[in-house]
Write the C-alpha coordinates for this entry.
Amino acid sequence: MLFHSTRGQSDPMKFTDAVRAGLADDGGLFVPERLPDLSSRLTEITAGSYVDLAEAIFREFATDIPAADLRALIEKTYAPDVFPDGVSPIQPAGNLHIQELFHGPTLAFKDVALQWLGNLFEYILATRGGEMTVLAATSGDTGSAAIAALGGRENLSLFVMHPAGRISPLQYRQMTTAPDANVHNLAVEGTFDDTQHILKMLNADADFKQRVSLGAVNSVNFARILAQIVYYFDAWKQLGRPDRFRVSVPTGNFGDILAGYYAKQMGLPIERLILATNDNDILARFFDCGIYSRGDVFATLAPAMDIQVASNFERYLFERVGRDGKELRWLMDSFAKTGEMALPKDAAADELFYAVSANETQILDTIHDLYDATGYVADPHTAVGVFAANQFHIAHDETVPMVCLATAHPAKFPDAIARATGRSDLASHPTLDALADLPARCTTIPADQTAVRHFIEEHL
Protein backbone atom coordinates (compact mmCIF):
# COMPACT_ATOMS: atom_id res chain seq x y z
CA MET A 1 0.00 0.00 0.00
CA LEU A 2 1.35 3.39 -1.00
CA PHE A 3 0.32 6.75 0.44
CA HIS A 4 -0.15 9.89 -1.64
CA SER A 5 -0.37 13.57 -0.71
CA THR A 6 -3.80 15.19 -0.98
CA ARG A 7 -2.12 17.98 -2.93
CA GLY A 8 -0.53 15.66 -5.47
CA GLN A 9 2.96 17.12 -5.56
CA SER A 10 4.92 14.73 -3.32
CA ASP A 11 6.23 11.28 -4.15
CA PRO A 12 4.14 8.31 -2.94
CA MET A 13 5.45 6.63 0.21
CA LYS A 14 5.12 3.34 2.02
CA PHE A 15 3.24 3.30 5.32
CA THR A 16 6.19 3.68 7.70
CA ASP A 17 7.70 6.44 5.55
CA ALA A 18 4.42 8.35 5.59
CA VAL A 19 4.13 7.87 9.36
CA ARG A 20 7.67 9.08 9.84
CA ALA A 21 7.11 12.16 7.65
CA GLY A 22 3.76 13.09 9.23
CA LEU A 23 2.92 15.77 6.67
CA ALA A 24 3.81 15.64 2.97
CA ASP A 25 6.47 18.02 1.67
CA ASP A 26 3.91 19.84 -0.49
CA GLY A 27 1.87 20.72 2.61
CA GLY A 28 -0.74 18.05 1.97
CA LEU A 29 -1.86 15.12 4.11
CA PHE A 30 -1.08 11.51 3.31
CA VAL A 31 -3.97 9.31 2.20
CA PRO A 32 -3.91 5.63 1.17
CA GLU A 33 -3.93 4.90 -2.55
CA ARG A 34 -7.18 3.01 -2.00
CA LEU A 35 -9.53 1.96 0.78
CA PRO A 36 -9.91 -1.84 1.02
CA ASP A 37 -13.39 -3.33 0.71
CA LEU A 38 -13.95 -5.47 3.82
CA SER A 39 -17.72 -5.87 3.39
CA SER A 40 -17.50 -9.61 2.70
CA ARG A 41 -15.23 -10.20 5.72
CA LEU A 42 -16.98 -8.18 8.44
CA THR A 43 -18.05 -11.15 10.54
CA GLU A 44 -14.68 -12.83 10.10
CA ILE A 45 -12.54 -9.87 11.19
CA THR A 46 -14.77 -9.06 14.18
CA ALA A 47 -14.87 -12.65 15.48
CA GLY A 48 -11.89 -12.33 17.83
CA SER A 49 -10.41 -9.85 20.27
CA TYR A 50 -9.81 -6.13 19.82
CA VAL A 51 -6.17 -6.93 19.04
CA ASP A 52 -7.28 -9.39 16.35
CA LEU A 53 -9.58 -6.77 14.84
CA ALA A 54 -6.90 -4.09 14.86
CA GLU A 55 -4.43 -6.47 13.25
CA ALA A 56 -6.86 -7.35 10.46
CA ILE A 57 -7.44 -3.67 9.63
CA PHE A 58 -3.87 -2.43 10.14
CA ARG A 59 -2.53 -5.20 7.90
CA GLU A 60 -4.43 -3.70 4.95
CA PHE A 61 -2.43 -0.46 5.23
CA ALA A 62 0.86 -1.21 7.06
CA THR A 63 2.04 -3.60 4.37
CA ASP A 64 5.73 -2.79 4.85
CA ILE A 65 5.80 -4.01 8.49
CA PRO A 66 6.46 -7.77 8.87
CA ALA A 67 3.39 -9.60 10.17
CA ALA A 68 5.03 -10.74 13.42
CA ASP A 69 6.30 -7.23 14.19
CA LEU A 70 2.89 -5.71 13.48
CA ARG A 71 1.17 -8.18 15.80
CA ALA A 72 3.68 -7.46 18.57
CA LEU A 73 3.18 -3.70 18.23
CA ILE A 74 -0.61 -4.05 18.43
CA GLU A 75 -0.46 -6.39 21.44
CA LYS A 76 1.82 -3.93 23.24
CA THR A 77 -0.47 -1.01 22.40
CA TYR A 78 -3.74 -2.53 23.57
CA ALA A 79 -2.43 -4.59 26.48
CA PRO A 80 -4.64 -4.89 29.59
CA ASP A 81 -2.22 -2.84 31.68
CA VAL A 82 -2.57 0.05 29.18
CA PHE A 83 -6.37 -0.18 28.80
CA PRO A 84 -7.45 -1.97 32.02
CA ASP A 85 -11.18 -1.58 31.38
CA GLY A 86 -11.07 -2.43 27.69
CA VAL A 87 -10.36 -0.22 24.71
CA SER A 88 -13.86 0.76 23.60
CA PRO A 89 -16.62 -0.71 25.79
CA ILE A 90 -20.23 0.29 25.12
CA GLN A 91 -22.55 1.38 27.94
CA PRO A 92 -26.36 1.67 27.55
CA ALA A 93 -27.85 5.07 28.39
CA GLY A 94 -31.53 5.31 27.59
CA ASN A 95 -31.97 4.87 23.84
CA LEU A 96 -28.27 5.47 23.17
CA HIS A 97 -25.22 3.20 23.19
CA ILE A 98 -22.30 5.19 24.58
CA GLN A 99 -18.94 3.88 23.42
CA GLU A 100 -16.37 4.85 26.05
CA LEU A 101 -12.99 5.59 24.49
CA PHE A 102 -11.35 7.09 27.57
CA HIS A 103 -9.97 4.07 29.41
CA GLY A 104 -6.34 4.68 28.46
CA PRO A 105 -3.52 6.35 30.45
CA THR A 106 -4.79 9.96 30.09
CA LEU A 107 -8.54 9.27 30.21
CA ALA A 108 -9.21 10.53 26.66
CA PHE A 109 -9.93 8.89 23.32
CA LYS A 110 -6.61 10.18 21.98
CA ASP A 111 -4.87 7.36 23.87
CA VAL A 112 -6.35 4.76 21.51
CA ALA A 113 -4.37 6.20 18.61
CA LEU A 114 -1.38 7.77 20.33
CA GLN A 115 -0.31 4.68 22.26
CA TRP A 116 -0.15 2.95 18.87
CA LEU A 117 1.72 5.85 17.29
CA GLY A 118 4.23 6.03 20.14
CA ASN A 119 5.07 2.34 19.80
CA LEU A 120 5.24 2.75 16.03
CA PHE A 121 7.70 5.65 16.28
CA GLU A 122 9.87 3.62 18.65
CA TYR A 123 9.80 0.68 16.22
CA ILE A 124 10.75 2.86 13.25
CA LEU A 125 13.67 4.46 15.12
CA ALA A 126 14.86 1.07 16.38
CA THR A 127 14.85 -0.47 12.92
CA ARG A 128 16.24 2.53 11.04
CA GLY A 129 18.30 4.37 13.65
CA GLY A 130 18.52 8.13 14.04
CA GLU A 131 16.63 10.63 16.16
CA MET A 132 13.28 12.34 15.88
CA THR A 133 11.73 15.65 16.91
CA VAL A 134 7.96 15.64 17.33
CA LEU A 135 5.92 18.84 17.32
CA ALA A 136 2.31 18.66 18.49
CA ALA A 137 -0.55 21.13 18.63
CA THR A 138 -3.30 20.45 21.15
CA SER A 139 -6.62 21.87 22.25
CA GLY A 140 -6.32 19.78 25.40
CA ASP A 141 -6.28 16.00 25.18
CA THR A 142 -3.82 15.33 22.34
CA GLY A 143 -0.99 16.92 24.33
CA SER A 144 -1.31 14.77 27.43
CA ALA A 145 -1.89 11.63 25.35
CA ALA A 146 1.21 12.39 23.25
CA ILE A 147 3.26 12.91 26.41
CA ALA A 148 2.00 9.63 27.88
CA ALA A 149 2.92 7.88 24.63
CA LEU A 150 6.29 9.51 23.92
CA GLY A 151 7.60 10.78 27.26
CA GLY A 152 10.91 9.15 28.23
CA ARG A 153 11.47 7.43 24.88
CA GLU A 154 15.04 7.36 23.63
CA ASN A 155 16.20 9.40 20.64
CA LEU A 156 12.99 11.42 20.61
CA SER A 157 12.15 14.99 21.67
CA LEU A 158 8.55 16.14 22.07
CA PHE A 159 7.35 19.77 21.90
CA VAL A 160 3.67 20.34 22.71
CA MET A 161 1.90 23.61 21.88
CA HIS A 162 -1.41 24.54 23.47
CA PRO A 163 -3.42 27.81 23.31
CA ALA A 164 -2.59 29.70 26.51
CA GLY A 165 -5.56 29.87 28.89
CA ARG A 166 -7.86 27.93 26.57
CA ILE A 167 -7.62 24.40 27.99
CA SER A 168 -9.07 23.07 31.22
CA PRO A 169 -6.98 23.28 34.41
CA LEU A 170 -6.76 19.49 34.61
CA GLN A 171 -5.68 19.20 30.98
CA TYR A 172 -2.96 21.78 31.72
CA ARG A 173 -1.74 19.85 34.74
CA GLN A 174 -1.75 16.54 32.88
CA MET A 175 0.67 18.00 30.36
CA THR A 176 2.87 20.28 32.41
CA THR A 177 3.53 17.96 35.37
CA ALA A 178 5.15 15.32 33.15
CA PRO A 179 8.69 14.82 34.53
CA ASP A 180 10.29 13.50 31.33
CA ALA A 181 13.33 15.45 30.18
CA ASN A 182 12.43 14.96 26.50
CA VAL A 183 9.07 16.76 26.91
CA HIS A 184 8.63 20.53 26.45
CA ASN A 185 5.31 22.35 26.92
CA LEU A 186 4.62 25.63 25.11
CA ALA A 187 1.68 27.89 25.99
CA VAL A 188 1.08 29.78 22.73
CA GLU A 189 -0.48 33.23 23.03
CA GLY A 190 -3.29 32.57 20.58
CA THR A 191 -5.92 30.01 19.59
CA PHE A 192 -5.66 26.35 18.71
CA ASP A 193 -5.90 27.34 15.05
CA ASP A 194 -2.73 29.42 15.58
CA THR A 195 -0.88 26.38 16.93
CA GLN A 196 -2.04 24.26 13.97
CA HIS A 197 -0.86 26.96 11.56
CA ILE A 198 2.58 27.01 13.21
CA LEU A 199 2.72 23.22 13.00
CA LYS A 200 1.96 23.23 9.28
CA MET A 201 4.32 26.11 8.48
CA LEU A 202 7.26 24.45 10.25
CA ASN A 203 6.52 21.17 8.47
CA ALA A 204 6.52 23.08 5.19
CA ASP A 205 10.01 24.44 5.95
CA ALA A 206 11.97 21.67 4.19
CA ASP A 207 15.36 22.72 5.59
CA PHE A 208 14.15 22.89 9.19
CA LYS A 209 12.14 19.66 8.88
CA GLN A 210 15.16 17.74 7.63
CA ARG A 211 17.62 19.38 10.03
CA VAL A 212 15.68 18.47 13.20
CA SER A 213 14.08 15.29 11.77
CA LEU A 214 10.58 16.64 12.37
CA GLY A 215 7.57 14.35 12.81
CA ALA A 216 3.92 14.79 13.83
CA VAL A 217 1.57 13.14 16.33
CA ASN A 218 -1.50 15.21 15.50
CA SER A 219 -4.19 13.50 13.47
CA VAL A 220 -2.54 14.86 10.35
CA ASN A 221 -0.52 11.64 10.81
CA PHE A 222 -2.49 8.88 9.09
CA ALA A 223 -1.45 6.29 11.69
CA ARG A 224 -3.81 7.98 14.14
CA ILE A 225 -6.77 7.84 11.76
CA LEU A 226 -6.00 4.17 11.13
CA ALA A 227 -6.23 3.37 14.84
CA GLN A 228 -9.54 5.22 15.13
CA ILE A 229 -11.14 3.27 12.28
CA VAL A 230 -10.95 0.12 14.40
CA TYR A 231 -13.38 1.10 17.14
CA TYR A 232 -16.16 1.76 14.64
CA PHE A 233 -15.91 -1.90 13.62
CA ASP A 234 -15.79 -2.85 17.30
CA ALA A 235 -18.96 -0.84 17.96
CA TRP A 236 -20.79 -2.75 15.23
CA LYS A 237 -19.62 -6.02 16.78
CA GLN A 238 -20.77 -5.00 20.29
CA LEU A 239 -24.18 -3.98 18.94
CA GLY A 240 -24.67 -7.53 17.63
CA ARG A 241 -23.71 -6.79 14.00
CA PRO A 242 -26.94 -5.01 12.93
CA ASP A 243 -27.85 -4.41 9.28
CA ARG A 244 -27.30 -0.68 9.85
CA PHE A 245 -26.41 1.69 12.66
CA ARG A 246 -25.69 5.36 13.31
CA VAL A 247 -22.82 7.06 15.12
CA SER A 248 -22.82 10.49 16.77
CA VAL A 249 -19.31 11.93 16.87
CA PRO A 250 -18.19 14.94 18.95
CA THR A 251 -16.15 16.74 16.30
CA GLY A 252 -13.36 19.30 16.42
CA ASN A 253 -10.46 18.57 14.07
CA PHE A 254 -12.49 16.12 11.93
CA GLY A 255 -10.14 13.19 12.59
CA ASP A 256 -12.52 10.99 14.59
CA ILE A 257 -15.44 11.38 12.22
CA LEU A 258 -13.13 10.97 9.22
CA ALA A 259 -12.24 7.54 10.62
CA GLY A 260 -15.95 6.74 10.62
CA TYR A 261 -16.24 7.96 7.03
CA TYR A 262 -13.38 5.66 6.02
CA ALA A 263 -14.96 2.76 7.92
CA LYS A 264 -18.15 3.30 5.91
CA GLN A 265 -16.18 3.30 2.65
CA MET A 266 -14.52 0.04 3.76
CA GLY A 267 -17.88 -1.70 4.03
CA LEU A 268 -19.15 -1.08 7.57
CA PRO A 269 -22.96 -0.53 7.46
CA ILE A 270 -23.00 2.96 8.97
CA GLU A 271 -26.26 4.59 7.91
CA ARG A 272 -25.50 8.09 9.23
CA LEU A 273 -22.61 9.94 10.86
CA ILE A 274 -23.96 12.63 13.17
CA LEU A 275 -21.42 15.46 13.19
CA ALA A 276 -21.71 17.13 16.61
CA THR A 277 -20.10 20.52 17.23
CA ASN A 278 -20.32 23.33 19.75
CA ASP A 279 -20.61 27.09 19.13
CA ASN A 280 -17.57 26.80 16.85
CA ASP A 281 -19.83 25.43 14.14
CA ILE A 282 -17.84 25.87 10.91
CA LEU A 283 -18.22 22.18 10.06
CA ALA A 284 -21.93 22.09 10.84
CA ARG A 285 -22.45 25.10 8.57
CA PHE A 286 -20.54 23.42 5.77
CA PHE A 287 -22.72 20.31 5.82
CA ASP A 288 -25.81 22.52 5.95
CA CYS A 289 -24.94 24.82 3.04
CA GLY A 290 -21.76 23.56 1.33
CA ILE A 291 -19.68 26.61 2.26
CA TYR A 292 -16.65 26.34 4.55
CA SER A 293 -16.25 29.80 6.09
CA ARG A 294 -13.86 30.69 8.90
CA GLY A 295 -15.13 32.80 11.82
CA ASP A 296 -14.00 33.74 15.32
CA VAL A 297 -12.99 31.03 17.78
CA PHE A 298 -15.15 30.97 20.92
CA ALA A 299 -13.92 29.51 24.22
CA THR A 300 -16.49 26.95 25.42
CA LEU A 301 -17.11 24.18 27.94
CA ALA A 302 -15.86 21.73 25.28
CA PRO A 303 -12.41 23.15 24.46
CA ALA A 304 -11.31 20.32 22.14
CA MET A 305 -13.94 21.62 19.73
CA ASP A 306 -12.86 25.25 19.90
CA ILE A 307 -11.53 25.09 16.34
CA GLN A 308 -12.30 26.86 13.08
CA VAL A 309 -9.78 25.20 10.76
CA ALA A 310 -10.13 21.41 11.00
CA SER A 311 -6.96 19.95 9.50
CA ASN A 312 -8.42 16.53 8.66
CA PHE A 313 -11.19 18.14 6.66
CA GLU A 314 -8.66 18.28 3.80
CA ARG A 315 -8.69 14.48 3.54
CA TYR A 316 -12.48 14.50 3.24
CA LEU A 317 -12.42 17.27 0.63
CA PHE A 318 -9.88 15.23 -1.34
CA GLU A 319 -12.44 12.45 -1.64
CA ARG A 320 -15.25 14.89 -2.50
CA VAL A 321 -13.31 16.34 -5.47
CA GLY A 322 -12.59 12.90 -6.89
CA ARG A 323 -9.06 12.65 -5.46
CA ASP A 324 -7.98 15.50 -7.73
CA GLY A 325 -4.89 17.04 -6.11
CA LYS A 326 -4.98 20.07 -8.40
CA GLU A 327 -8.60 20.84 -7.52
CA LEU A 328 -7.85 20.30 -3.82
CA ARG A 329 -4.88 22.69 -3.97
CA TRP A 330 -7.09 25.34 -5.53
CA LEU A 331 -9.68 24.96 -2.77
CA MET A 332 -7.11 25.12 0.02
CA ASP A 333 -5.36 28.13 -1.53
CA SER A 334 -8.70 29.89 -1.84
CA PHE A 335 -9.49 29.19 1.80
CA ALA A 336 -6.05 30.40 2.94
CA LYS A 337 -6.51 33.69 1.06
CA THR A 338 -10.18 34.45 1.72
CA GLY A 339 -11.17 32.36 4.74
CA GLU A 340 -13.89 30.71 2.67
CA MET A 341 -14.35 27.92 0.16
CA ALA A 342 -17.21 26.14 -1.56
CA LEU A 343 -17.35 22.78 -3.28
CA PRO A 344 -17.87 22.75 -7.05
CA LYS A 345 -21.53 23.15 -7.98
CA ASP A 346 -21.68 19.65 -9.46
CA ALA A 347 -20.57 18.07 -6.16
CA ALA A 348 -23.64 16.38 -4.70
CA ALA A 349 -24.57 16.77 -1.03
CA ASP A 350 -23.23 14.01 1.20
CA GLU A 351 -26.24 12.29 2.75
CA LEU A 352 -24.02 10.28 5.11
CA PHE A 353 -23.51 13.32 7.36
CA TYR A 354 -26.07 15.05 9.57
CA ALA A 355 -24.68 18.09 11.39
CA VAL A 356 -25.84 19.57 14.71
CA SER A 357 -24.29 22.26 16.92
CA ALA A 358 -24.91 22.67 20.67
CA ASN A 359 -24.58 25.89 22.65
CA GLU A 360 -23.40 26.19 26.26
CA THR A 361 -26.88 25.93 27.77
CA GLN A 362 -27.69 22.86 25.69
CA ILE A 363 -24.43 21.19 26.75
CA LEU A 364 -25.16 21.74 30.45
CA ASP A 365 -28.80 20.70 30.08
CA THR A 366 -27.75 17.52 28.28
CA ILE A 367 -25.31 16.57 31.05
CA HIS A 368 -28.03 17.19 33.63
CA ASP A 369 -30.83 15.39 31.76
CA LEU A 370 -28.72 12.36 30.88
CA TYR A 371 -27.60 11.95 34.48
CA ASP A 372 -31.10 12.52 35.81
CA ALA A 373 -32.66 9.97 33.43
CA THR A 374 -29.98 7.26 33.35
CA GLY A 375 -27.34 7.98 36.00
CA TYR A 376 -24.70 8.34 33.28
CA VAL A 377 -22.21 11.20 33.70
CA ALA A 378 -20.96 12.63 30.40
CA ASP A 379 -18.15 15.10 29.90
CA PRO A 380 -19.02 18.25 27.88
CA HIS A 381 -17.70 16.86 24.57
CA THR A 382 -19.65 13.64 24.94
CA ALA A 383 -22.68 15.74 25.89
CA VAL A 384 -22.44 17.55 22.56
CA GLY A 385 -22.58 14.16 20.87
CA VAL A 386 -25.54 13.06 22.99
CA PHE A 387 -27.41 16.30 22.24
CA ALA A 388 -26.82 15.84 18.51
CA ALA A 389 -27.91 12.20 18.65
CA ASN A 390 -31.12 13.17 20.39
CA GLN A 391 -31.82 15.91 17.84
CA PHE A 392 -31.46 13.35 15.06
CA HIS A 393 -33.70 10.88 16.88
CA ILE A 394 -36.46 13.48 17.18
CA ALA A 395 -36.73 13.71 13.39
CA HIS A 396 -35.91 10.11 12.43
CA ASP A 397 -36.67 6.47 13.18
CA GLU A 398 -35.37 5.67 16.66
CA THR A 399 -35.31 1.91 16.12
CA VAL A 400 -31.97 2.03 14.30
CA PRO A 401 -29.16 1.67 16.90
CA MET A 402 -27.35 4.92 17.72
CA VAL A 403 -23.80 4.89 19.11
CA CYS A 404 -22.43 8.03 20.72
CA LEU A 405 -18.65 8.26 21.06
CA ALA A 406 -17.58 9.26 24.59
CA THR A 407 -14.29 11.05 24.14
CA ALA A 408 -13.15 11.95 27.66
CA HIS A 409 -13.68 10.92 31.27
CA PRO A 410 -15.97 13.40 33.06
CA ALA A 411 -13.33 13.84 35.78
CA LYS A 412 -11.36 15.98 33.33
CA PHE A 413 -14.12 18.61 33.49
CA PRO A 414 -15.33 18.70 37.10
CA ASP A 415 -16.51 22.32 37.00
CA ALA A 416 -18.84 21.68 34.07
CA ILE A 417 -20.23 18.54 35.70
CA ALA A 418 -20.86 20.42 38.95
CA ARG A 419 -22.56 23.29 37.12
CA ALA A 420 -24.80 20.92 35.21
CA THR A 421 -25.79 18.56 38.01
CA GLY A 422 -25.39 20.66 41.13
CA ARG A 423 -23.11 17.98 42.55
CA SER A 424 -19.37 18.17 43.07
CA ASP A 425 -18.86 14.47 43.85
CA LEU A 426 -19.59 12.96 40.42
CA ALA A 427 -16.39 13.74 38.53
CA SER A 428 -13.12 12.53 40.01
CA HIS A 429 -10.41 10.02 39.20
CA PRO A 430 -7.31 8.92 41.17
CA THR A 431 -5.03 9.53 38.19
CA LEU A 432 -6.06 13.18 38.08
CA ASP A 433 -6.19 13.64 41.85
CA ALA A 434 -2.52 12.63 42.01
CA LEU A 435 -1.51 15.64 39.90
CA ALA A 436 -2.56 18.27 42.43
CA ASP A 437 0.79 18.79 44.16
CA LEU A 438 3.21 18.04 41.34
CA PRO A 439 5.47 20.82 39.98
CA ALA A 440 4.55 22.16 36.53
CA ARG A 441 6.89 23.07 33.62
CA CYS A 442 5.68 25.29 30.79
CA THR A 443 7.00 28.17 28.67
CA THR A 444 4.74 30.93 27.36
CA ILE A 445 5.59 31.88 23.78
CA PRO A 446 4.16 34.20 21.07
CA ALA A 447 1.97 32.74 18.32
CA ASP A 448 4.87 33.00 15.91
CA GLN A 449 6.50 30.18 13.95
CA THR A 450 9.95 31.78 14.20
CA ALA A 451 9.74 31.87 18.00
CA VAL A 452 8.68 28.23 18.12
CA ARG A 453 11.39 27.20 15.67
CA HIS A 454 14.07 28.93 17.75
CA PHE A 455 12.77 27.31 20.94
CA ILE A 456 12.96 23.86 19.35
CA GLU A 457 16.48 24.46 18.05
CA GLU A 458 17.66 25.63 21.48
CA HIS A 459 16.14 22.75 23.44
CA LEU A 460 16.84 19.68 21.33
Q: What stands out?
A: The first strand starts at residue 2 and ends at 5.
